[in-house]
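Form 12-C: Joint structure prediction
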Amino acid sequence: MINLAIVGPGLLGGSIALAARHRYRVALWARRAEAVTELEAAGIGDRASTDLRSVVADADLVVLCVPVGAMPALAREVAAAARGDALVTDVGSVKAPLCEQLGAILGGRFVGSHPMAGSEQTGLAAARADLFADAVTIVTPDARTELSATAAISGFWTALGCRVLQLSPGEHDEIVALVSHLPHLLAATLVNTVAAKNAQAFDFCGPGFRDTTRVAGGPPAMWAEILGTNRDAVGRAVEALIENLREIVRLLDRDRPMTDFLTLAKAQRDRLRLPKTPHA
Amino acid sequence: MINLAIVGPGLLGGSIALAARHRYRVALWARRAEAVTELEAAGIGDRASTDLRSVVADADLVVLCVPVGAMPALAREVAAAARGDALVTDVGSVKAPLCEQLGAILGGRFVGSHPMAGSEQTGLAAARADLFADAVTIVTPDARTELSATAAISGFWTALGCRVLQLSPGEHDEIVALVSHLPHLLAATLVNTVAAKNAQAFDFCGPGFRDTTRVAGGPPAMWAEILGTNRDAVGRAVEALIENLREIVRLLDRDRPMTDFLTLAKAQRDRLRLPKTPHA
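Section 2 - Result
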């Protein structure tokens, strides 16, 4: 059986452990002893420890599941403690700067991953074995990455139920700026705009407002870090959106062009691949 | 039993008929004979007809469930055909201009309503008896409205399962510009911005993007009409949002203020009253 080491038992790390059981021997590292106790009480993974060295020493595959800013320091410890042929990946939401840093530390056996799963909930308590069912995971090799590492990591995510797609780290960051970071910033800005204009308005929300703003319930510090790390692409995405908003406001009194604009949006929205399982 | 006449058997009209059965004797008017056949086949309402006069003649309560632009002409027919003491309401998403028009036609027995229910789906096939369960309905009397009409119409929506709130037509339009019309325009603009910047990005959507853009799947012509009818308030809401977006983009490289901004949004989002039943 393949030895899997998961570094960081949050929503993603915990869900990977649940999805990987029966197929992998799963060891988890947590920074806090309370988290280890929680993992053991929940029966998640085959073993858990605060000692990173013991968790990764015999690992065939190490998955870094900590916030983006905490990755490099842990990657250095993994590089020192793991076998030289252990493959390493991460689940960070921004890839270009991170893959550069982690690749420099870990070499060709590292390849970046971004499972596009999760919810506004966080922490081990929200972990689910089916979090990755039908989710997209983007794998982001660069010039340094060994082909065999890309193949093995892609196979790992496929085994967990993901659809695996491949992009360069830079392409990844441009695309998630559009489909993840921009929507997050928009949702938060929408909530704060309504609050500033008329806080009473929250009493009149329908399901549309709730869905449009759901992601704004996500963890603030984590998202501030993600947005900051991808600031250039996010900034460009926001500028493009503002430009389009300015144009569309001019169509408010022109029924036909506005209908055309909404028809185009509907056609593209209707083509989105919908998940087989409803995600929270 | 109270005689209820529903003018227009779409998602809202059909759902009202389903929610009101057993409690009201329900007659429905549809413009097309095929829609009458569909109503009869589905067993929705006690009777259905394309003859507006026969549908509203004995009504105690008439609910106009047609697009905003079609309301005044039908209201004139209702005024001519219904009893003088029949109460009339509508389900339009914009209230100030509509209540002015309909009040002029129908007098003090008219009071505007806006049930904040529905989904991106449309038509009778999407109608559900529980569409109004725990939904907010805003009732919008003005100076012309008789108090007894407001009370009776509020009671009607309460009987259907709604939480009823009251606003003036103008307050209503300001508030729904923020919590309904702005989110709709944003969702459509987000979809079209992504399409223009990088259509490949749609292949990488997670549940966040799907939820944030769900309302963009709504009927384009209906929404163009709603947005145009409420253009002043929508324009102000968009301007406020753009201003806030411009400010927040400047915080992308400042972790602490961005975290504060997202924390404020999360706190407000987390306080939103969530529905008892998941709405589509």
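Section 3 - Comments
The first strand of chain A starts at residue 2 and ends at 7. Chain A touches chain B through 97 residues (CB under 8 Å).
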